[in-house]
Amino acid sequence: MKTTSVMIVGVGGQGSLLASRLLGTLLTDEGYDVKVSEVHGMSQRGGSVVTYVRFGEKVYSPIVTEGECDYIISFEKLEAARYAGYLRKGGKIIVNTQEIDPMPVITGAAEYPGDVLETLKTQGFDIDDFDALSPAVEAGSAKAVNIVLMGHFAKCTSIPKDRWIQALNKVIAPKFLEMNLKAFDLGYGA
Amino acid sequence: MKKLVIGNEAVAWGLYNGGIGLVSSYPGTPSTEITEFLAKHDDIHSEWAPNEKVAMETAFGASLAGMRSACAMKHVGLNVAADPLFTMSYTGITGGMVICVADDPAMHSSQNEQDSRHYAIASKVPMLEPSDSAEAYAFAKSAFALSEQYDTPVILRMCTRIAHSQCVVDIGEREEVPMKDYVKQPSKYIMMPGYAKLRHPVVEERTEKLRELAEDCMYNRTEMAENREIGIITSGCSYLYVKEIFGDSVSVLKIGMPNPLPKKMIRDFAAKVKKLYVIEELDPVIENHVKALGIEVTGKQLFSAIGEFSQKTIRDAFLKEGVQITDVPEAQGEAPQVPGRPPMMCSGCPHRGMYYTLVKNKITVIGDIGCYTLGAVAPLNALDSTLCMGASVSGIHGFNAARGSETEKKTVAVIGDSTFMHSGMTGLVNVAYNATNSTVIILDNSITGMTGHQQNPTTGYNIKGDPAAKVDLEALCKALGINRVRVVDPYDLKACEEAVLEELAAEEPSVIISRRPCVLLKYVKPKTPLQVDADKCRGCRMCMKMGCPSISFKDGKARIDKTLCIGCGVCEQLCKFGAIGGKTE
């Protein structure tokens, strides 16, 4: 079985760590060999962050390089474009259409490329873009964007929904479980 | 118990199950979680020490007392702890002792990418290097027995990718190891010349014995393929990338003990393959050893000494060599050029108000290591230098000693509370004792921030979150010889400016404590987000000069992102037109 590579990209503080841990737990429970690579430290302070999840029969490298990625799950529009070169031919990008200005845009040194996804689509990229922020807010917190996206991604996989719910129960603190289950559901249906 | 864990958690489990009784560390990415995971166990003593030297000496003391102990630090932390390391190699240990050090190739969160293996060689201490979490667990667990068998501390070398990557580990049970008796042994533990001279030959003999072990041990192994065209000697995560590209189709000598390196094992492997490569991140440590054995090998001429590797960097290098590789990935297309997104200080970060004040007054700022190093990036561009932990306070003293009153009136040092405890205090003693008219600002956010919120001696809590003795920074600075010590709230720009200008003007050294807890602390409750009154906003961009991520500029007006703003009110003080406030609706 060929190794499948997933990248979860976004802005430091958006909750990509929890998303990658959810996926890692789920895939381990499904019996795959799994490697997850996280980012800690300085880049978590509002910088561009990327975590890698790889699974298959036997996985060696914990990281994903250019042209290898099967699925890019992006928490922010610009970040999807930044990592688009990692997508393999025939891969898919799932992206939250939320825009978060990086510092060069805030200072006026650069402009936010608002039409970047449309450009990528015309170049043949398979892009599934949707607003994940509104469902997150509907579920109870803007912070649940990560789980909305994972709910949406769940439909791309052959793993049954109830297995995802089991994994959610394992990785989410009981206090936030109900909200995140709702966020997952809304993402799944979006 | 099978569990998906990051390398650092695996190390913690290995040490715990290996019978550890004490861990003392100073936080530093990518090593921090080793100690955080150990601190979850209430049956062992765990602590954050003020710095790595104190941590290592504490672990040594516990070992001397007969307990299995460990300390953990990032690569540059080992510079701080190098002093005890080199002599502990001579004394050896009583209870097994493990020194965990995490390198940061590619400098994800560091100021340099030094290679810790040089320390193992220089101090003549054995070093283990795992490739993933499963090995990190096994190596850490075995390290105590290795340490006791050879009477030496053992260094466990991690790197960012292994420390922060997860894989499944089969975690066993804790081995309860009784403490060894404490016996007074002056010739072993008092390292004055007469005794130390007797210990050095012991160290040399030990290295030779360890080299014999290296020839046949659980750490080093050969994986011979049918095809003997290519042989690769590799270690750490480079091993994973090699296997990712070649699977079992090339022969590999995997080194899990980079010091001391085997000789016979390498000679035998080299003799069996046609073309020999060494693939190791950072410096050519294994390569130089192989060359010293008189064996022809290709290493750094093909695989860079800079940054970290990946399956791509290694694959590309081999393709350039003309080596056949199947399954080369094909990308969908190229990524467009997009604006960068560097890390930055958080919305509402208390450091920002003080930095704005310094930039506004064109002050030269000698910086230090922590979240506040991010004051160096646009639009603040506030810093003039950042070297290492504590170097701001010692640095400003030298800077002012060199230039005198020319710089004393317009230069400050900035240092965080935890970094001041780590190694800023001694620099401040020097400022007072050797009398430069220097101004030091302690950016006291009441936590060790950048590494993810660890307690320190100024916070009043220990690693478990239990109340602990709290260093009184004002009293401490006075006791160190500084008469002028004052506290300001960095959210109050007027007070900040007054304090900075007055202390710079004063004819003696001074300390300003800029005190406000980190906004990410759970007990810090955000206030109502502020808003911009578009009718009053003149689009002057004054509020954007301090680089708050909550404020953006659209259609000629400032805008505040209410999901990010925590209502610190600093921008409100900057607006000359009263356009920013909390009650515009």
What does this structure look like?
- The complex is a heterodimer of chains A (190) and B (585).
- Chain A has 190 residues and is α/β, with parallel strands linked by helices.
- Chain A has helices at 16-29, 77-82, 103-106, 116-122, 133-139, 145-154, 161-171, 174-189; strands spanning 4-11, 33-37, 48-56, 69-74, 87-96, 126-130.
- In chain A, strands 2-3-1-4-5-6 form a six-stranded mixed β-sheet, sandwiched between helices.
- The longest helix of chain A is centred in the last third of the chain and has 16 residues, at 174-189.
- Chain A is globular.
- Chain B folds into four domains: 2-215, Thiamin diphosphate (ThDP)-binding fold, Pyr/PP domains (Rossmann fold, 3-Layer(aba) Sandwich); 221-320, Rossmann fold (3-Layer(aba) Sandwich), CATH 3.40.50; 351-515, Rossmann fold; 531-581, 2-Layer Sandwich (Alpha-Beta Plaits), CATH 3.30.70.20.
- Chain B has a six-stranded parallel β-sheet, sandwiched between helices. Chain B has a five-stranded parallel β-sheet with strand order 13-14-15-17-16, with helices on both faces.
- In chain B, helix 1 runs parallel beside helix 7.
- Chain B has 21 helices and 21 strands.
- Chains A and B meet through helix 1, strand 2, helix 2, strand 5 and helix 3 of A and strand 8, helix 11 and strand 19 of B.
Secondary structure elements and pairings:
The complex is a heterodimer of chains A (190) and B (585).
Chain A: E1 4-11, H1 16-29, E2 33-37, E3 48-56, E4 69-74, H2 77-82, E5 87-96, H3 103-106, H4 116-122, E6 126-130, H5 133-139, H6 145-154, H7 161-171, H8 174-189
Parallel strand pairs in A: 1-4, 4-5, 5-6
Antiparallel strand pairs in A: 1-3, 2-3
Helix pairs in contact in A: 1-7, 5-6, 5-8, 6-8
Chain B: E1 2-6, H1 7-17, E2 22-25, H2 32-38, E3 45-48, H3 52-64, E4 69-74, H4 75-80, H5 82-91, E5 97-103, H6 117-123, E6 127-128, H7 133-150, E7 154-159, H8 160-163, E8 165-170, H9 186-189, H10 193-215, E9 221-223, E10 230-235, H11 236-246, E11 251-255, H12 264-272, E12 275-279, H13 285-292, H14 311-320, H15 351-360, E13 364-366, H16 391-403, H17 405-408, E14 411-416, H18 417-433, E15 439-444, H19 473-479, E16 484-488, H20 493-505, E17 510-515, E18 531-532, E19 551-554, E20 557-560, H21 570-574, E21 580-581
Parallel strand pairs in B: 2-3, 2-4, 4-5, 5-7, 6-7, 10-11, 10-12, 13-14, 14-15, 15-17, 16-17
Antiparallel strand pairs in B: 1-8, 9-11, 18-21, 19-20
